[in-house]
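pinning this so it doesn't scroll away 📌
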Amino acid sequence: MIANDKTKLKLTACFCLGFLCLFSQDDVLVPSEKPKVVYKVWAEIYHGDTIASIWMPEILILADYSYKTKKQYEAWSRTKYNVKKVYPYAIIAAAKLKEYDLILSKLPTERAKKAYVKIIEKELKADFESDLKNLSMTQGKILLKLIERETGSTSFDIVKHMRGSFQAFMWQSVARIFGSNMKTEYDPEGEDIMIERAIQLIESGKF
């Protein structure tokens, strides 16, 4: 019994010595401290406490539009196609309207503004008349809605702003003959929900 205890004691001593020798060697890799990572964030005071505030980009999770019948599927497919065709024109219209408004605000007289509006008309006709003439009636109606979506103003309001009430009334009358309405407002949560869903798919690169 005593011999066994002595043997155990010797083995324990050898193990400890070996362990100490191992970690006394110069080439032993000793874990170093982890590098400190510093994040700079905004701070907000909430109910007397200072809380870190981190901005994160919006994550949009989309699913295909829900349809139950073949007719609904066909309507959704047509809407996606038509929106994809006219959406770029709505983006251009919004950008150009901001540009034109900025220039018009700096012109000193009404005469100068009217002269500039005529220049605008010639420029737009030269750049887009042939393309817009090839749009279908449905695509034209969607474009009117998308212009309101991108600019915050209906086509009627834009023409009224640029050309006056009489011109806006005349163009609205023409639009009515072809079944359109320049006063159309965009309703993304109602009748235009499919259009809005198609735009989201386009902007996310999924269509």
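📌 and the second one:
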Amino acid sequence: MSGLVTPQDAVAAVRSKLGQKWAEAVCAEFGIGDRTVFSVRLRPRVGTGKAVEKLGYTTWHGWHMQWRDFCDRLPAGVEVDRTAVTIRGVSGEFPAALNADLDGAAALPGDAEPPTVDLSRARELASALRSAGATLTPAMLRAVYGLPPHDVDVLINAVTWLRQHPDAGHWTLRQLPVPGMHTKWLDTHGALLRDVAGRDVRDEVRPRLTVMHLTYVDPGHAASGRRRHDAWTMGDVHDIAYQPRVVLVVENRDSRLWFPSVSDAIVVEGGGKAAAALLANVPWIRGANHVVYWGDIDADGYAILDHFRATLALPAPDGAPAKHVASILMEATDLYRYAPHGVNHDKAGRPIKPSQELLPHLTEDETIAYNTIATAGPTPFRRIEQEAIPLAHAVTQLLRISKAQGPDPSRRPHPSS
């Protein structure tokens, strides 16, 4: 390396620094943090006549001429610092560092890639956040800059609304009357709103009560002529018909509605990861001898099982002890047994994507099946839907578990989890 930085390389270096530090520089303009200067040394380790001689006078002269021409075209906000070098007994001032402020760094001429940030928009966002009373930091500014314009508007509206409403406990998360906010906006942007607003509205709102649909499959209950299908709401005065010894959580409504008879069992219709966390706090589910999950053989199914199992592995808020969750029809042998029902496209005809999510609470056999269908590499199929598996097969597996005296040790999470 010659130790001499050309104007083109210096511009490229400043542009790179601009991409890394633009948010800090914009925030500094609003009094947050120190002023940012984008600086590049132009001749590191070349500060003496001896060093110049080692490089070669022709090389030195050519480099100096490049910088002399470039300095004639410097935009406002950019300066070239010079320091003295004595060459053959003659002292002169030569370029030593290129320094630029935010606008100067963006305006530097050259063939380097243009800035990827729109400084005008960045400043407008910072100003809007400050005007709304939001917390402004470089990290938050970057996050907000990456939002589509509509989501930026909703975020500003939400910060303003929260400042006007110190108590959000009169609404559920889906009821918040923030202008422009759709009911699931906080599912994606809740953490960012927490950071910029300085409070987490998700912890303040009125909780959504757990409501689950269930089917009584105990043959004795069916013989009584009482209702087979029911709904249960957390905190209501309604009790279930009987305390189950076995609770089976399924994801598909048809699988619940038409599940065959199993003594002392109730089949509950789940609803993904969020519902799994809610089900974990239902007293009569915790009170069952066996809690079993059966979902689709796909990335989502295994993610729900992993989340459900992890949640019940912890004691409930009311002090109920941890609970082991078994699974049925979700192991590697099931994957191959029902392979003729495997599909690679969703209901809209789109290819089902692989998954890189780590699921540490699966058993060894479940992990083998998950890795097979979720791999980024080639695989015969990515999904076997629950409805494709005969319910009689599910009954056989459920009875094997329900007849056991306790949780089957072979189905505990793999030791590596």
